[in-house]
Amino acid sequence: MEYRKDREIKTSNLILAGLGIAAVGFGGRYLTRHAKTVTQTLKKQMDASGALSKYYKGGFDAKMSKREAGLILGVSPSASKVKVKDAHKRIMLLNHPDRGGSPYLASKINEAKDYFDSNKA
């Protein structure tokens, strides 16, 4: 009698293990078939929402313009002197060459501030 119970328990464990393996197999098959579709849909939604466009994607112009100066400092082209000064200070604290920032970016930040200063006078 005891032998029969042990055998039934082992058999039911094997059946459950087999069902678990089958479920994992079918789940993996489903994911591999639909992974491309899901990733493509997510990419389209991210591009459409502009979630990845937080930063300006493009280089610097040959000559500084009002628009470019505003983009560099993060202010509108018609910003006041106080806003320009605050933005310059904030950005230079983050990008100063003495603190590990890029000298080229620091020069562009200073050039943007100088552009606003010369055109606001």
Automatic annotation (TrEMBL):
Naturally occurring in which organism (per UniProt): Mytilus galloprovincialis
Classification via InterPro entries: DnaJ_domain, J_dom_sf
Annotated GO biological process: protein import into mitochondrial matrix
GO molecular function, one term: ATPase activator activity
Transmembrane segments: 12-31
Subcellular location per the Swiss-Prot or TrEMBL entry: Mitochondrion inner membrane
SUPFAM superfamilies found in the cross-reference section: Chaperone J-domain (SSF46565)
Keywords: Membrane, Mitochondrion, Mitochondrion inner membrane, Transmembrane, Transmembrane helix
Record carries keyword Transmembrane helix: yes
Keyword Transmembrane helix belongs to the record: yes
Listed name of the protein: DnaJ homolog subfamily C member 19
Entry's family note: Belongs to the TIM14 family.
CDD domains, A to Z: DnaJ (cd06257)
Residue stretches making up the J domain: 67-121
High-level lineage: Eukaryota, Metazoa, Spiralia, Lophotrochozoa, Mollusca
Protein's membrane topology: Single-pass membrane protein
Cellular component annotations (GO), alphabetically ordered: PAM complex, Tim23 associated import motor
